[in-house]
Amino acid sequence: MTLAFIAPEPSSPPRFWAVIPCAGVGARAMAAGALEPSLPKQYQPLLGQPLVLHTLAAFAAVPQLAGTLVAVASGDDFLAAYPSLRYFTVPCGGPSRAQTVLGALRALLQRGAQADDWVLVHDAARCLVTSLQIETLIAECQHDSVGGLLAHKIPDTLKTAVTGPGGVRVVGTLERSDKWLAQTPQMFRLEPLLHALEKLGDAATDEASAMEAAGHRPKLVAGGAQNFKVTYPEDFALASAVLAYREGSSTTARFGELAPAKPERGNRFF
Ligand SMILES: Nc1ccn([C@@H]2O[C@H](COP(=O)(O)OP(=O)(O)OP(=O)(O)O)[C@@H](O)[C@H]2O)c(=O)n1
Ligand SMILES: C[C@](O)(CO)[C@H](O)COP(=O)(O)O
């Protein structure tokens, strides 16, 4: 299958945009009641900052990015208290992650992004991603015909199971040498990704699955175990410990990246 890309102007090479789906509620994290009930997962405090601010700090330090769109739920003005020229919010949250991302891609196009620009979609809830990982993904994928994603090779023995009267029981052990855990960012050209997500709909739990359904083979780029998605109550303590280990007791340097900066070409639309 071939995909028609709009050829970039000689003076305007494809740009790189980040899209951060940030419109979930975090139902699995909330289940045990350990968190602040009125705050969605992505805004829960983590080492003195809302969780998503850690995510955004990593993207703010990536010089290749023209802008970062944070896709929030309608009426969500939580990030208004954390103004920065390094990101902008759009109230395009949908009932599923796929629909939130679709809204964000359309919003980028409306604001002047081009069909062949690259988009890096990253879960707000993966707050341990590093700027180096994002830059590595860009370097590995920017000359690829499809794009790709960060992923982690399965380190454990992999079981299939059934649930019945005797509890959850193993029915088999799978070959794991070809199995990877999909992470984010996931980096694809804007228009092909938009069309692929429109076609697959909510069955697309990530961008790569939509591109796969469209006949492509996204490139896997090694992420790392620390780039996990904060999903369950115990994940917050683990994420805090990793951040504290990385940063010592000070977050000043990391959050310095979010200080208002002089508008650049990439974010002048916003
Ligand atoms: N309708 C949705 C659902 C999810 N997300 C975002 O997609 C990312 C990955 O989703 P997940 O971790 O599953 O978050 P939640 O959907 O919030 O969690 P849960 O499924 O436990 O409710 C999160 O950053 C979340 O905010 C989104 O923007 N819009
Ligand atoms: C996109 C993703 O993080 C890849 O692992 C994941 O699919 C999103 O998780 P969800 O729980 O399905 O929203």
From TrEMBL:
TM spans (from-to): none
GO BP, sorted A to Z: isopentenyl diphosphate biosynthetic process, methylerythritol 4-phosphate pathway
Presence of the UniProt keyword Iron in the record: no
Pathway in which this enzyme or protein is active: Isoprenoid biosynthesis; isopentenyl diphosphate biosynthesis via DXP pathway; isopentenyl diphosphate from 1-deoxy-D-xylulose 5-phosphate: step 2/6
This enzyme's EC code(s): 2.7.7.60
Keywords: Isoprene biosynthesis, Nucleotidyltransferase, Transferase
Annotated site residues (Positions MEP for the nucleophilic attack) in this chain: R176, K229
Record-marked site positions (Transition state stabilizer): R28, K41
Pfam families in UniProt: IspD
Catalytic activity: 2-C-methyl-D-erythritol 4-phosphate + CTP + H(+) = 4-CDP-2-C-methyl-D-erythritol + diphosphate
InterPro entries per the UniProt record, alphabetical: IspD, IspD/TarI, IspD/TarI_cytidylyltransf_bact, ISPD_synthase_CS, Nucleotide-diphossugar_trans
Molecular function terms from GO: 2-C-methyl-D-erythritol 4-phosphate cytidylyltransferase activity
PROSITE patterns assigned to the protein according to its UniProt record, in alphabetical order: ISPD (PS01295)
Annotated family: Belongs to the IspD/TarI cytidylyltransferase family. IspD subfamily.
Protein role: Catalyzes the formation of 4-diphosphocytidyl-2-C-methyl-D-erythritol from CTP and 2-C-methyl-D-erythritol 4-phosphate (MEP).
Name this polypeptide is given: 2-C-methyl-D-erythritol 4-phosphate cytidylyltransferase
Species of the source: Comamonas denitrificans
Gene assigned in the entry: ispD
